[in-house]
Amino acid sequence: MPKSLWYLLVALTIQITGASFLWPLNSLIIHQELGKSLTVAGFILFLHSGTGVIGNILGGRFYDRIGAYRTILGGLSIAVVATFILANSYHSIIGYTLCLMGIGLGSGIVFPAMYALAGSVWPEGGRKPFNNMYVAQNLGVALGTACIGLIATLPLYAVFYANALMYTVVIIFVAITFRKLSVKNEAVSPVGLTEVPLKAKNKPTILALTLVLVSFFICWLAYTQWQANVSVHTQNIGLSLRDYSLFWTVNGLLIVLAQPILSIFIKKWVNSLKRQMFVGILLFFVSYAILAHVEFFSGFMVAMIILTIGEMFFWPVVPTIAHQLAPKGKEGAYQGIVNSVSTSGKMIGPLIGGLLVDLYSFQIMIYVLLVFIIIAQVTAMLYDKPLRKAKNNEELNKKSMKGA
């Protein structure tokens, strides 16, 4: 693995560790500390993610135009300013909302640039650079959420200052180490998509990516309920904040520690990206089917473990496919699209989930999500159809030209 990628992984881990001090608590803070309904909490998270979508699109375009270094530093600068302001204005619902939007914008700019850079510094790595980024991201989640139980015993402002401090550390690290990152631009054959043409025509390529992104969006819409409504639901049935933070600690540690086993499993039995998507989405369905009926800590933990294994299969596949389908010079834009879709799921998920819980019940929300997950499985399984059709048409055209 290139040294340049190690710098990326360290920076991402630090950033996510700091962010993980705050994001699991957002709904609880808005609902319990600021006295707002779950629907209002969902709307505020909607705005936070909305600015993240804008940041994702801008970050991808900035990467292609001005490079990774300036794009990442610019995004982190916005996030650092927003986190320090938040530490002093969290008691106001307006201040809280505006600062979350600032953090969303800054972080949104950073992520597509980091993912595009990961693919560029190790182009021959196929899925590996994106999988390593995914592992680093979840190591940060594990470290950050493991600290929540301790931080939650301190005054609330300590959470916000801890978040701001971590963003400050990461921007200093990036400023020192990222300036001279080596980037490789040579073309490589895609891993896991050898059965379809990399240089597919524009229309089938876009259609294939769109089908994958529909599945990606739906699964993020479901996944984000753990960060928004499951947190409140567990509190309502008597689980402690320490119990809830443990779910995320196990999530992050499992992702980091189970990678060797997962790699062997993928190489032997699930060696295509399409199969990895199928297994991942299937495990999402099983996890939420369990979540609809549990009321005890052990049941929630089983659902989280199954969900974690599902995301380990599915999440790294999407940026890998996007990188392989991206035209040269558009890698940042394609990663920006991928990140904007995941952020859109995070944006709409809490809002839809909060409305369903407020109007009906937690169980009804889960049943609706199960229907959505079935749709996600269908679109994922159809994603390579336009690419295969384009390849077949190309072969027929070649044969007809030879016959002529």
TrEMBL record:
Name of this protein: Multidrug MFS transporter
UniProt keyword Secreted present: no
Membrane topology recorded in Swiss-Prot or TrEMBL: Multi-pass membrane protein
Keyword flag Cell cycle: no
InterPro entries linked to this entry: MFS, MFS_dom, MFS_trans_sf, MFS_Transporters
Transmembrane region(s): 5-25, 37-59, 66-87, 93-118, 130-152, 158-178, 206-226, 246-266, 278-309, 364-383
GO molecular function: transmembrane transporter activity
Organism: Alkalihalobacillus trypoxylicola
Subcellular location(s) per record: Cell membrane
PROSITE patterns: MFS (PS50850)
Lineage start: Bacteria, Bacillati, Bacillota, Bacilli, Bacillales
Boundaries of every Major facilitator superfamily (MFS) profile domain copy: 1-388
Keywords: Cell membrane, Membrane, Transmembrane, Transmembrane helix, Transport
Highest taxon listed in the record's lineage: Bacteria
CDD domains, per the entry: MFS_MdtH_MDR_like
One cellular component (GO) term of this entry: plasma membrane
Predominant location: membrane
